[in-house]
Amino acid sequence: MIAAGAFGLDTSDTAPLIANARGMLSRGDLARAAETLVAAMSEADVSRLMVRSDDPFHILRAIDAASRTGADLFIAHTNLPEAHIDAVVKKFGVQMIVSAEDRLTGETPAEAATARIFMMTSGTTGAPKIASHSLSALMSRAKAAMHPGNRGAKWLLTYQPTGFAGVQVQLTAVVGRGVVVAPDERTPAGFLEAAKANGVTQISATPTFWRAFLMVVRPGDLSLRQITLGGEAADQSTLDRIRKAFPDARVTHIYASTEAGVVFSVHDGREGFPAEWLDTETQGVTMRVRDGFLHIRTPNAMGGYVSDTAQPRLDDGWLATADRVEIRGDRAFIVGRDDSTINVAGSKVYPLMVEQFLLKQPGVVEAHVYGVSNPISGQLVAADVVIEPGLDPATTRSAILAACRENLAQYQVPRAFKVVDAIAVRESGKKG
Amino acid sequence: MTEAQVLEHITSIVQRMLEDKGVKAATIEPETELLGGAISIDSLDLAMLVRELEDVVGHDPFAEGFIEFRTVGELAKLYAK
Fold first, then answer.
1. Looking at this predicted complex, what is its ipTM?
2. Which of A216, A380, A402 has its CB closest to that of B48?
3. N or C terminus: fewer CB in 10 A for chain A?
4. Nearest residue of A to residue B61 by CA position?
């Protein structure tokens, strides 16, 4: 007899759960796959495993198996360089890697497992940052989001499936007896095709995704019940266009962070949030503005980072975000971030990391990476590089761009790329 | 700038993007849907295209908010004056 785990799935349950490239999988299919994995883990005495796949089937069977056995699970992005994966596997003693073909690594766990879920940021040149969560906390977040309209819903998985938001969408489908729909091709046309084929009812995505998606979707293509915008501040024109394209859907924009979870949800279709929400506790979460920055206090903050932290916790227990808030009338607006992070369609890019990557390429002597704004993705990565004298700019440029496409996530690849003679240095000694 | 001139700019910028990606040149017609799959560009390439058009043409049709467009021809119309 195998424990039912946090999902409580039944092998005889034929209700659909995952629509992916291979067709429809039921809750029972997932339960059987998890039982098979539990058996393989038990045979090899595995207490630390990693899943490395964008397929919800592999991600969910790994989470289910981990919860049935109390194992630690590392959820890794498919686009992380091999070297970083190897380093994590060695450092933490990950014994098994789950993907299309599960395999044992031959490592032994560095410490006893405590049923934690570890998620990684997509660092490219630096080591990935690893955040520790408990499955029960992640599940209660999914349950908290479970209002009646979300029961039996069909969710389009627009977020990176291995990221925090992507995992939450998958857990929400499990908890609410819904279906998670994952397209073969993660392009606006591919998302639309999968959404139409499976009768998707809820889409949670970044405002940037929505702007691109609205270019391919036609009236009557989809009957959406719930539309959610997150990851970036939702602007009024995007909210208005969505409302016009899907007049019958409930439109919500949320502010959430990996550290604090969902901090607020706005349903009135107006950008920003009511200023009266500040300094008032709502469902355990309180926000305040200090020196223009948003601070958050929440009882269910995540377990912490195994590596360095992103949102520092202050001595009085508040999380300090780098998001600046402006209050105009009865409304508060998130107006931007006060760090050098480039926000490309909701994904954070650290310029320094891309600079370090560029500087490692043959022929590159200096690199400056910065964000350029545009009406579609918010920002884009731009790079200026200085190359060694005597090199052919055209072939060097092609080689560097090819290396970027091969090693960086698509949102990290510099889309504006110039070979320049020199890079300006400010008086502070900083570039640009 | 006329619509035909903007179309030429769009074509040359897109062809350069495809070349940078190592993808072979595509046929670009006014009715080609930008993200419809016929040309191998993603939404971030499209974001860059819009940014570059602003530089070449000298004005930003999205300054007052986003405007719907789907095809190459519709995008060209936005920039033509």
1. 0.86
2. A380
3. N
4. A375
For residue B28, give the 3-state DSSP assignment. Answer: coil
Residues of A within 8 A of B48 (CB-CB) are 374, 380, 415-416
Residues A135 and A6: beta-carbon distance below 8 Å: yes
Residue A353 predicted with pLDDT over 80: no
By CA distance, what is A379's nearest residue in B? B47
CATH number for the domain including A71?
3.40.50.12780
Residue of B43, B55, B56, B60 to mutate, testing the A interface (most A Cβ within 10 Å of its Cβ): B43
Query: For chain A, what is the domain count?
Result: 2
pLDDT in tens, A231-273: 878 888 789 989 999 999 999 999 987 777 788 899 999 999 9
Structural domain includes residue A332: no
Domain B3-79, CATH 1.10.1200 — does that match?
A: yes
Coil, strand or helix: which one is A122?
coil
- Whether the CB-CB separation of B25 and B31 falls below 8 Å is answered with no
